[in-house]
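Researcher: Please generate the 3D structure of the following complex. Treat every line as part of one assembly.
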Amino acid sequence: MTVTDTPPGFTGGRLDRADHLRRDEAAIRAARMHPAARFLVLDRLRPLLAPEGDRLQWVRRAEAPDGPCLFLGLDDEGLPHFAVDGPADGLPGVATDARAAGARLAGAEAAIVAQARSLLDWHRRHGFCACCGAPTTVARAGWARSCGACGSEHFPRVDPVVIMLAERDGMVLVGRQKGFPPGFYSALAGFVEAGESIEEAVARELWEEAGVRVGAVRYVASQPWPFPSSLMIGAMAKAESFELRLDETEIEAARWADRAEVADVLRNAGPWSAPPPLAIAHTLLRRFVGSAAG
Ligand SMILES: [Zn+2]
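Model: Done. Output below.
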């Protein structure tokens, strides 16, 4: 069977994030005034897509609404790119749900959606200092917030999530949560907790949710998941048995599937359905099908 692999969704960004410019207010001001600077408007966190729906709709500074304006980076030609939080009324393009945008855009532009959505959402929810409660203001061109009252600086959060396939004798474990559409199964997943390695989080989640003990854990790939700020860390884990003991508050059903079954599922011809290519669970299943049997 032929399996083509693709990078995980929301990855493949090509902008130079140019961290050295973020603390240089004059440079950022000049970048914003650059006549060819490009602005991506997110209307209630929905990025503007061109009417054809397959590329981002960039606008010029004069067209962009007033609102928090964050520096995304420089393109190959050195042109500055910004994200703006504000209404898209009257602008060309269509404000589009970020998941739908991520599925429709090429990787480099989907990565910009992940960056912009996650960062703007963080600013929306972090208007007050976690140390003293005073209002905070945007700093470092959007890559921090600072508190004038106590001097604290706050940085955008990234929340690590492990997502994994337990594997044994050429079969992998998939499960479904109660809220999933009928027939839909995915890799099990959970947040990494404080004081825990990725490997430990994988082993704990598989034990808690499915009652499966695992040995070796192998990192496969990762992706940003900007709803609002997850970093999905995809892994494979060697299961010690096929026996399951489900935590039914988390997992309604689970099943072991071999390569042939997963390959059928990935071409929409299997006994269950899997996450779409945008999701890293799809990447994990695809890599499993493409890996050597055994
Ligand atoms: Zn403070």
